[in-house]
Amino acid sequence: MRSVLKTEELCVGYGKKEIVSGISQEIIKGQFVSILGPNGSGKTTILKTLAKVIAPLRGRIYINGLLLDRLSSKEVAKNLSVVLTERPSPGLLTAFEFVALGRYPYTDIFGRLTEKDKEKIKEALQLVNAKELSERYFGELSDGERQKLVIARAIAQEPEIIILDEPTIHLDPKNKIELLGILYRLSKKKGVTVLVSLHDIDVASRISDLVLLVKEGRIIDFGPPEKVINQERIAQLYDLKDVHFNSKLYTFELLKNNKRKDIFVIAGAGTGTPLYRTLLRHGFGIVTGIIHENDIDFHVANSMKVEVVSERAFQKIGKNTLKKAFSFIAHAKAVIDSDFPVGSFNRENIDLIHYAIKKEKKAYTLRKKKEAYELYGNLSKKLIYLNDVYSFLEERR
Amino acid sequence: MRRIRHTTLFILSSILFLFLLLINLAFGSVHIPFKDIFQIVFMHSSDSTACSIIWKIRLPRILFASLSGAYLSVGGLLLQVFFRNPIVGPYVLGISAGATLMVGIVMLLGISIGLAGIHPFYISLAAAFGAFCVTALLVALSAKVKDIVTLLVIGLMMGYLCYAVTSILITFAAKEKVKGFVLWQMGSFSGVVWKEFYILLFSALFLSILLSIIKKPLNAFLLGEEYAKTMGVNIKLLRNLIVIISSLLAGLVTAFAGPVAFIGIAVPHMARLLFKTSDNGILIPASAILGADVTVLCDLVARLLMSPVELPISAITALFGAPVVIFLLLKRRATI
Amino acid sequence: MRYKIVILFLIVLLSCGHQQSSGPFSIRYGKGYKEITDGIGRRFVLVSKNTKNISYEKSRVIKIPIKKAVVYSGYTAALIKELGHVNSIVGVVVEKKNWHIPEIRKGLETGKIVYLGEFSAIDYEKLSALKPDVVFTWDEGLIPKLEEIGIPCVITSTKIAPNLSEHIRLILFLSAFYNEEEKAKRFIKEQFRRIEEISHKLKSVSHKPKVIWGDIYPKKVLVEPENSWAAEAVRKAGGKYLFNDVQGASCMQITVEKFFSRAKDADILITYRGPEEGITSKKAFKEASELLKTIEIKPMNEGKIYFTGWRLWETADTAGIIYELASIFHPKLFPLKKHNYFFEIK
Prior knowledge:
The complex is a heterotrimer.
Chain A: E1 3-14, E2 17-23, E3 26-28, E4 32-36, H1 43-50, E5 58-63, E6 66-67, H2 73-79, E7 80-83, H3 95-100, H4 115-127, H5 143-156, E8 161-165, H6 173-189, E9 193-198, H7 201-207, E10 210-215, E11 218-223, H8 225-228, H9 231-238, E12 244-246, E13 251-253, E14 263-266, H10 272-281, E15 286-292, H11 296-303, E16 307-311, H12 319-331, E17 334-337, H13 348-358, E18 362-365, H14 369-376, E19 384-385, H15 389-396
Parallel strand pairs in A: 4-9, 4-10, 7-8, 8-9, 14-15, 14-17, 15-16, 17-18, 18-19
Antiparallel strand pairs in A: 1-2, 1-3, 1-5, 5-6, 10-11, 12-13
Chain B: H1 2-26, H2 34-43, H3 48-82, H4 95-108, H5 120-144, H6 148-172, H7 175-185, H8 194-220, H9 225-230, H10 235-257, H11 263-275, H12 280-304, H13 313-331
Chain C: H1 2-16, E1 18-22, E2 25-30, E3 33-37, E4 43-48, E5 61-64, E6 69-71, H2 74-82, E7 89-92, H3 102-110, E8 114-115, H4 124-130, E9 134-137, H5 143-149, E10 153-155, H6 164-175, H7 181-202, E11 210-216, E12 221-223, H8 229-236, E13 240-241, E14 252-254, H9 256-263, E15 268-271, H10 282-288, H11 290-294, E16 304-308, H12 318-329, E17 342-345
Parallel strand pairs in C: 4-5, 6-7, 6-9, 7-8, 9-10, 11-13, 11-15, 15-16
Antiparallel strand pairs in C: 1-2, 2-3, 3-4, 11-12, 12-14, 16-17
Helix pairs in contact in C: 6-7, 6-8, 7-12
C-alpha cells in the first residue's frame, strides 16, 4: 500500500485569492478517487495545483514521496498526466499523432518516436477502444471519440496518477459510461491512480474507492462512498431543499407526492416505479403497497416521499400490514394494479383488488384480460383495463 | 498513406522551386538568351553586362526572395501556433509596424552618419530592433493575458500606435526624407546585395537548429498552454525562443526588403491545407518551401508584369495569394 | 443612330466657336464668355464682371479677371508670375521655407499670402475665409468639398505626365483667367523660338550624350518616364534619353537590371537627390546607396552627375532649362556663365 499522492495543509488559489485550504489527504496506488462538489467550489483549482499547472499558495504536495516543487516539469509529466476541462483543438492532427503527444516526456529533443513509443501509443488507443480511429483527423471526430483520445493521450504519458477534470461533461450517457469504464479498468487493471472530478454522484459513488466532497473552499468529507455519500451530506454539498437523494440507489428524485392519497398503486418488483413517476408528474396523490423492503419500488417510492405499505424483506405479508393497506384503499378513490408479478410472498396483494371492488372503488389494471381472469376469476369483469398508464390519465381527465 | 502524401508534396514543391528559380533567372526586364545564362552561371564568362546583371542583380535577388519567403512563412507559422490563432502574422500583430516605426525614426529624424545620409545598415538594424521590441512586448503580455482575442486586439492597437507615431514623424519630416521613407515602406526585393543574402543564409543555419528544437514543444502547444505545461514543456523558455526566432525571421526580412505583407499569414494556411496536417515537424519545412515558391513567383510577377516598371511586392502577394487561401479554406474539412 | 446624330451635332456645335487647346486643357471663346476645360476634363465658364444670368452651376462660373487665387504647385505660381499677376496669389499649401519665388516668400512673411496647411490636410476654414476666386490644384480630392463651399477648383495637372508642349502651354490656360492671352501667346512663341534655335544649332551635332534622369535610392531606382517633359527637354537639348520604354505619370520605379543595363553606359545622370539628402559628392552618393556599391555605372566614374531641385519647378522659363541642359551636353556650342538649374556633383 504505497502512498502515491499526499498533501499536507495544502492551500490552493490564484494569486492572493485562496480558493480551497486545509487539504491534507493521502491517496494510494491504484485508487479511484472522485471529487464532488458544486460548480465554483474549487475542484478545478485543486486538480490544477496537484498537476503543477498552478503553484500552491501554501502547504506541500508529495508525489511518490517526493516533493512536487523539487521535481522538474518533465519528471512530473512522467508521474502524472492530466485531462483538463478545456477541450483541445489541435486542428489537422490524426488521432495517432494526437495520442503521440503524450510521449512528450519520453522522446528525444527532436521529438522523434521510437518503436517503443509507437507501441505505447497503440496500447493507449487500444485501451480506450479507439484503435480504428488512429488515422482519422481529430477535428472530424465526435465529442465522445475526442474525449477517448484525450484520455488515450494521458495514458500514453504512462503516468502513475491520472488527473481528470470533469471528463464526462458534454458527453451522452453511452459515452459517459464507456469513458468511466475505461478509467475504472485503468485503475483496477493497470494500477493507475485516478483522480477525477465529476458531477454524476450516482456514477461516482458506484465506482470510486474514495470520494472527496468540496464545498465553498472547504473539504467537507473524504472517505469511501458508503460512508460519505448520504442524503444529508449531498443535501449539504449542493444546498438541496426540494430534491431528495437516495443514498442506496444513489439517485435524485425531484418529484414529490401530493398530500391527498387518492390512488392506491399495487406494485412490486419495479412495476410501480414508472407509475409513480407519471402519476406524480401529473399531480396525483398516491400511496403504494404492499411492497417488500428489498424491492426497488420501495426505494423509489421512498425517495419520492410516497407512502408505502411495506413488509420486511423475504417475509410473507402479515395481517397488520394487510389491514393498513385496506384502510388506505378505503380512503382512496381508485386502485391501480401495476401488473406486478405474483409470488408466494405477495399473494395478499390480490386480496387488495378484491377489497377495492368490494368497496366499490374504481379498480384499474395494466394486465391483459386473460391474465387478469386467471388471477382474479370472475371479479376480473369489474376491472377497468388499461393499455398503459397514459390511458389512465385519459380516463381520469 | 500520409507519409506518401507528404513526401510527394515535398518533392513537387521542391521541383517547382527549382523550376521557378530557373524561370526567374531566365526572365527579366533585360533580355538575356538562355545559352548565355547557362554560360554565365556555370562558366562565369560572357559579355560583362549580362554577367553583371545575372551575378550582381538577378541571382542575389532570387536567392534573397526565396529565403525571405521561407522566413516570413515560418515566422507566421510560429506566431499562429503560439497565439493559437489562424489570422495572426507579423503584419496583424503590429510587428511590421514596429519595424516601420523604428526605420521611420532613423530615416525621418535623420540620425545620419556623416555626409552620406543614412547608412543602409542602420535602417536594417532599426527594422530588426523594432520588430524585436513589439514581439517581445506581445509575448510578455501573452503570459498575463490569457485570452487570445484580447492579445490580438492589443497587437492591433500596438500596430495603430506605431503607425500613429510614424505618421506624426512624416508630417514633421523634410519632404525629401519622406519620399525615401515612403519608398522603403513599399516592400520590395529590389536591389538586395549578396551580403544581405549571406546574412540571411547564415542566420538560416542558426535558425534551423532552433526550429528543429522548438518543433517538439510547439506541437505540445497545439493542445494549449496548460496541457503543454503538464506534458513537461518549459513555457518560459518556449516563449523566449518564440520571441527570438519570430522577430529574427520577420525582422531580418523587413530590415533588408521593407515590410512584405501577406506571405506570413497566408503561406502557413497553404501549407496546412495542402499537407493536411498540424504537425509542426511537417509544417515548418512545408511553410519554408511553399513560402519560397510563392515569394519567388510573386517577385517574378512584380518584375515582369509591367516591365520595366516594377510593382510593389505586397500588392502582388495579396492579389495572387488571397484567392488561393480563400479557395483552400473553403475546401478544407477540419478546422485549423 | 440617334446618338450618333447628337454627337455629330455636338461636334459641329463645339467647333463653331474659336477654340484653342493644348492637351486636355482647352479654351473656347463665346460671346461675352470663355468656356474652359481643365486637366481632368471638367468645364468652367469664365465671365467678365458685368455678365449676368449665365445658367451654369455656381461653382463652375468664374468671374474674370480673377483677383484672388490659391495655388498648389510652384510651376503654376511661376507661370502666374510670368503673366504679371503674382499679386493675385493669396493662398498656398507649401511652407515659406520651401518657396523660392521671392514675391511669395515676402507675401507669406507679411501675411498677404496665407499658408493653408499641408496639402494632405488643408485648413478649409481658412480657405473659405479667404474667398478666393479660384483654386489651382493638382489634388482632385479637393473637388467635392470646394464645390460644397462654392469655390471653383481647377485641376492644373493631367492624368498622364505632360509633354514639353503641354508643359509650356499651360500658361495659355492660366492666362484665360487673367485676360492675358496675348501675353501668354507671346511668351509661348518666344519659348518655342528659343527651343527651335537650340534645335537648329544642334543640327550639325552628330554625337549626343546618353542621359538618364531619375533617383537612386538605397535599393530602388526611379526614373522620369519617356513621356515626361523632362525627358523631352533632354531630347530637345541634344541628349539621348535612355528610358524611352518607360511610361507613366511621374517618376516610376523600374527594375534594377533594366536601370543597370542602360545606366552603365550613360554619360550623364540627372537626379533630384542632392545635398539636402547628404549627397554632396559622388563618394557620398555611393555611400548612401547599397546599389551603387554593387553595380558600376558610368556617371559614377568618368560620367557626370547633376543635381536639380526646386528651381526646376519654380520657373516659367522652360527654354532656359533646355538651354542649360544643352550647355551641359554640348558646352562648346552653348556657352553658359552661370548654372541656374543643374549643379554638378563631383
